[in-house]
Fold:
Amino acid sequence: MESLDHLRRQWDADVLADPTLGGEGCDRLLAWQMEHGACFDDRPLCRVLRPAFVTPTQLVRLEGICRRLMAAIRQVRIHITAGDDWLDRLGLMPAVRKLVAIDPGFEKIGITTRLDAFEDGSAFSFVELNAEAPAGIAYHDLLARMFRDMNPMERLRQHAEVRPLRVVGWLLQALLTTYNEWGRGAGKPRIAIVDWRTSPTTPEFHLLAQAFGRAGYPTVVADPRDLELRHGRLWAGDFRIDLVYRRVLVVDCAARPEDVATLVEAARQRAVCMVNPFRTAILHRKRLFAELTDPTSPVDLRPEERATIDQCIPWTRLVRDIRTTGPAAEGAPTIDLLDYIRQGREHLVLKPDDAYGGRGVFLGWQMDAQAWEAALDEAQAAHYVVQDRVPLPTREFPVMGQDRQSDMFLMDRDPYVFRGRMGGFLTRLAVGPLANVTRGGGMVPTFVVGSGT
Structure:
């Protein structure tokens, strides 16, 4: 089989030669996305004319990396929750602590997660774990339908085996497995996808509800303010709920306790199985990577897990006034952390420990010394991590429009991990340094190309 680079060049040539993908054709693709729900905050999610490709060999390799990383993260979770004072040591807000203290009724808490990563050649750099409520799953499968029907895909199939990665099925299976472990339900669960009705990802909720319904699991989309607890069961109107797929964020639940009181009480009473549980806030912390990359950490890791961490996770530390070990690439010297941060502006990034959507991130190489010092002051006053800069790969994609010219995009490749197993990717494209949909970025689906797909 030809290399992926060759296939990409051939695909792009087919796009340019295809009269159905001219200006009017691109307008139809954009309108198709809006009509079918592949949109975020009233804008189409994909504005390029090529999906992402991966070979079966790359897929197997990445599955192994994710499996080892998630096993290591599980060990970190066990370590940081050991003892009676673990809630005190995590630095959680009081309102979040109350939510995290609720026992979900099952042991595994990272049911649906996403490892955010950049791929540079054959190397992967994983920069954080999204363990809250990672989005994009239904968008991915819908966009795969759009690309599946394009003429360049038909021509690609003539000389290569091609299949889309399907992600929704992985999500549903993770929900059902967890529901069975929860052990208080019988038969097929009735599912509610719960978030604010004003959420910009509401179209995705309805896509998921349709997919779950087609699989035989009645599903509604509900605002937490519309829930009722009656006779020990949770209801949305006249719809009885057995399983909540929680998309409303823990931080929002903590900030708006009256609006989520019914949902919280249902979880406390175990009137429903809720995925992800509130306790997932333990994993949605960038300080996990500080534990993983600190050679003095007492976390018990296997040699293959340690090797994967050394290869794939950048040096990370919780911002504190301490002495610690520096990056291995510099010989792992003993450093004064705050002084090291001040002097390392060109290769360091400061991130809030538990934020999302690129909020509060400071990229040192884009700041002057004075602004960086102010950012460090802010980081010391809050809960922040410092992380070594990773290569930010760019890739050329043909853009929807009359001339179909190509532009360069920052591209990340973020594996979805369901109950510890990889189940597809979120591949995001951005023109700036933060590949985030909430910051105006887009996405493309991933197809497996090659023998053995």
The CA atoms of residues 61 and 246 lie 31 Å apart. The chain has a mean pLDDT of 91. Residues 4-283+394-449 form a domain with the Rossmann fold fold (CATH 3.40.50.1760). The chain has 15 helices and 24 strands.
